[in-house]
Every structure is written in C-alpha cells, then in structure tokens.
Amino acid sequence: MPRSALKRSKRVVVKVGTGVVTRADGGLALGRLGGLVEQLHELQRTGTEVLLVSSGAVGLGARRLGFPGRPEGVVDRQACAAAGQGALMAFYDGLFQRLGAACAQVLITEEDFHFRQRFNNLTATLEQLLKLGAVPVLNENDTLSTAELALADGGKKGGVFGDNDRLSALVATYLQADALVLLSDIDAVYDRPPTTPGATAIATWNEATTFEEGAASRLGRGGMGSKIQAARLAAQGGVTAVITSGDTPGVLRRVLAGEPIGTVFPPQPGLPRRKAWLAFATAPSATVHVNAGARDALVERGASLLAVGVERTEGDFAPGSVVRVVFDGDDIARGLARHGAHELAAHDRGQLVIHRDDLVLL
To answer: Which pLDDT does position 102 carry in this prediction?
Structure first.
C-alpha cells in the first residue's frame, strides 16, 4: 500500500498554496500558519527533515499595495512579490523562533535549474541547512524571474517550473525526499470541481484516472491541474506524493501516519540524481530530430545517439547543452550533447552525439 511507506518518511517536502497561506481577503492566515509551523517543528523533533515551499508572497503583496485581486501584468506581480516576500518570511521566522527553531529563506530563479553546477550548489546549500537543523523556506524569486509569473502551462513549453507546485516536486525529487505533501484549500483531488453535484474524491491516483479541472484560486496561480502535474512528477521520481487540505487538523501528522486522507500518488522507481536532473530540472536549449532507427536504438536497446540517426537539428546549441530528442513530433528523451550544432554538421555519420549515460528516456 502506498500510504504505508509514508510512515517511514525521513525527509519531507511540504508545499503550501496561496489559499492556505492567506485568508479570502488576502491577509495572512495567522492561525493556520501557526499550526503548520508547529507541525513542521514536531516532525523535526521526531527526527524527520522538512523543507517548506511556500506561495503567498504575490497575494500578500497585492493586498499591501492596494490591488483588488491578482495583478495581471508581470511587472505588477514582480512589485507585489517584492512587497510581500519580506513580510511572509518575517512571519515564518518569528513563528519558528518562538518554538526555538530556525528557518532559512531560499529564493530560486529558473536559471538555477538550467545549469548542473548551479543546481548542485543549490542542493549542497539545502543539504547543509538540513544538517544544521534549519527548515529551508523556498520560493521562486519572483522579483527577478518572470518564468513563474508569466507561464500558464506549468512549464510545458520549455520552462522548468511555472509555479511553486512544480518547484516543490523538483526539490523533492532531486533531494530524494520520501514524501511530498501538497497542501491546498481542497481536501483531495476530485473527478470534477468539488462544488459540482456528484463530485467524487479520488483516494489513489493512477494513470487511468480521469479529472476535470475547475478554476484557479483568486490570488494563486497553480490550480488543481498544476498540483496533479507536480504530484505525478514527484511520483515518477520515486517520491510518494499526497494532495490534501491545509485546513485539516494535524494534517501532516495524519498524512505521515498513513491515514486515508487526501489523494495519494504512489511512487515509481526513482531515477539516479543526474538523470532526474536531465528529465525534470532542465529546459532544453534546442531539439534534435531522430529517425526510426535511432528511436529504436535509444528506446529498445538503451544505446547512445549517433550522428547517423539524426535527421536534423532545431535551434543552436553548444557542447554540453541539454537538448530535446524528438521522433515523429514526440519527445522521447533528453540528453547532454557531446558536440555543438555546427560541429555536429561537420562530423562523420558515426560520430557520438549523446552518450547513453548522459541521456534519459521520457
């Protein structure tokens, strides 16, 4: 049973959405956040490492700057992020200090995920914070980055993450967490918007599950579709994911005790860290289109990609760039190119393009 594994969790990523962080009027939900921090501290006291991914800065800043709802323009959202992030972090810091605990703000931009060295540096920082007993509080640096603020497709058009749901899944996957808990203002995933007559909660997600998405929250961006995508991503990386309500009393304790609340996404065998980075945490800089023979060699035989299998390239790329491997219009892999686009054109047809150790099938 996928829920039984939650009882053995030693590293947990918790993501709280705007609907959990703020009240309907955009102000901080003081009691709810206070209870959440107490639960995080209790997990720490019992030997569990915890990381918190928190939305809410833009919504909080919008209220402080006098916006009636979610700002539409990217620059307006950046201004709201600047106004709200400090207040949000100060509140978390005060709550943790009252419990005799420490937290640390970690702001991330999309570029931190594009380059392996920067991603490794981020990972090392998070690992050290956990070792020192601090709770990392993560958010995208919306004041500088426009990726999260502008994307409405969850990053499917080439970005790494379009919201904090996906960010939390990437962190959980790459730090090899045991569990990802996505806290929303809805108690589970429903097969249709929960206000619809006959809507049914889904206890366990599988790839045959059907789902009809409703609207995103008034001040948030993610929506339930974004949370499902993030939970599936984490599960593909070997992490057990749960979507449930942040309003449920003792929700973290109950989820990690294996109680049947929310919707659970069972884990699949996890990828090694390097291949997890390639699969989930990179934005390809170009596309390599391959023929049927190369597709069969990659998918069926686990071979490397040779120049003879390349039909054409799309976009410019340098040696070491992450490229998308496409056959007949479908993404089949991502990998690190051994040669740039111009070098590739000049080499013989037996030239190695992507070594199988630098390639991950999607």
So the answer is: 97
Beta strand pairing call for 263-265 and 240-245: antiparallel
| Whole-number Cα distances in Å, 143 to 56, 98, 138, 273 | 13, 29, 14, 29
Contact assessment for residue 22 and residue 29, using Cβ atoms and an 8 Å cutoff: yes
The string of pLDDT tens digits covering residues 139-159 is: 987 665 554 444 333 333 444
Q: Are 196 and 237 within one domain?
A: yes
Q: What is the DSSP-derived secondary structure letter of residue 158? A: S
CATH assignment of the domain containing 140: 3.40.1160.10
**pLDDT per residue as tens digits for the range 216-249:** 544 445 578 889 989 988 998 889 999 999 999 9
Q: How far is the C-alpha of 291 from the C-alpha of 296, rounded, in Å?
A: 9
CATH code where residue 325 lies: 2.30.130.10
Q: Which of 224, 249, 275 is the last residue of a domain?
A: 275
Reported as a single tens digit per residue, the pLDDT across 194-218 is: 888 888 999 999 877 877 766 554 4
Q: Same domain for 54 and 172?
A: yes
Q: If 0-12 CB within 10 Å is exposed, 13-18 middle and 19+ buried, where does residue 93 land?
A: middle
Q: Residue 167 and residue 162: Cα distance in Å, rounded?
A: 8
Cα 353 to Cα 359: distance, rounded to the nearest angstrom: 10
Residues 237 and 344 in one domain: no
10 Å Cβ neighbour count for 124? 10
The pLDDT assigned to 159 comes to 47
- Tell me the per-residue pLDDT of 172-196, one tens digit each, with 9 for 90 and over: 988 889 999 999 989 999 988 888 8
Domain count, the chain: 2
As a whole number of angstroms, the distance between CA 325 and CA 336 comes to: 10
